[in-house]
Amino acid sequence: MSKSLKEIVLPVAGGTALALSAALLIANMDYGQTKIVSLENKVEQISLRAEDAAQRASKEAETVSQLRQKVAEIQAVAEERASAGSDMTEPAPTRDGAFGLGRGAMPEEVAAWDVDVLPDGRGLPEGRGDVFTGDEVFAEKCASCHGDFAEGVDNWPVLAGGFDTLADKDPVKTVGSYWPYLSTVWDYVHRSMPFGEAQTLTADETYAIVAYILYSNDLVDDDFELSHENFAEFEMYNTDGFVIDDRPELEYSNWRTEPCMEDCKPSVEITMRATFLDVTPEGGGDSVMNDASAEDTPTFVASAQTGDTTSGTETVAAVSASVDPELIASGKKVFRKCQACHDVGSGAKNKSGPHLNALIGRQMGSVEGFSYSKVFKTAHEEGKVWDEAALAEFLAKPKSYMKGTKMAFSGLRKEQDLDAITAYLKSVGE
């Protein structure tokens, strides 16, 4: 390169480098200024936060101070009351006005809870159901616990029978004999039944079931239909069997006296003993088992005098002698399915069904004082008589043999049960 060219290039390169250096310096200055502004903003924010925290701390400290002062005042009042012997459990002072909690219930919320049914029919939904429909619904949804004809299964409640037993030592309290209001039946069935499937029944199904329960208690005919329209007109058998409990006004004052602690009676005697366990042995010895048997215990079925109490007539003696005693004993067990509604033996009375003394050879529908269904009245007029064949056919399928019968029993399925109960009823005289 010639000397003249070098003299030109070097000044140009030097000027470029100087320009680049100046640009870099300016850029660094801008970045530094931006950084300074950012730091200043952060410092300002931190200062504001610190000021806010200080204000909150001051308020909290003031609240704590007020609480401590309140606690001190309460403790001072408590110490003053304790020293004065005042009651520390006296009720809180009354407050004027509302507390301002919650809200008023909406109409739909009230309606969801207001589901009870009153004796005069208030609260009932519209609907209807007849005995025939109720029979079918009851068999499907209720009979597994309450029996095919409301006689109760095992320890489940019996719903039919028990009339005129409430004054007995062992009363039978059923829907028919005891419950004073039909609304209780409807409300309980609709809200709580069937067991395990509560509130699955429709209003019509509930009306039908209640109608069938009334029919099982011989309180309505087989063509009866219950509805919200005639509900309030129906009067239960034991409506007048309850009184208002006036003991708080008339008797409680007599009980609130100083109890007698010694010499309260001129003498003390044992008047009754436990059925199985002799908890009151003679001489105060250890308790032992006595000789009582299960037959001595009460039963939930009133007046259940069965085949042991026969009339002793020659006819019964001849039947008993000619029939296997074990078959009669087996028939007595089968009769347990019947004794909720029927009575046999000495002094037998009509219950929800007629007594069955001297049944074989008796004209159908002929027991005095019993209100038979239309179909049995017709059979009586036709002169039909109970013989072994008719009884077996009837007990196998009552509703098929005697259409329209009030008896809700579904029937005996086993041939040996039919033979056994026939033998047992033959052994029972007048």
UniProtKB/TrEMBL annotation:
UniProt KW keywords: Coiled coil, Electron transport, Heme, Iron, Metal-binding, Transport
Protein name: Cytochrome c
Organism domain of life: Bacteria
Species assigned in the record: Roseibium denhamense
Gene3D superfamilies in UniProt: Cytochrome c-like domain
Coiled-coil annotated residue ranges, if any: 36-70
Annotated ranges, domain Cytochrome c: 129-217, 326-429
InterPro entries according to UniProt: Cyt_c-like_dom (IPR009056), Cyt_c-like_dom_sf (IPR036909), Cyt_c_1A/1B (IPR002327)
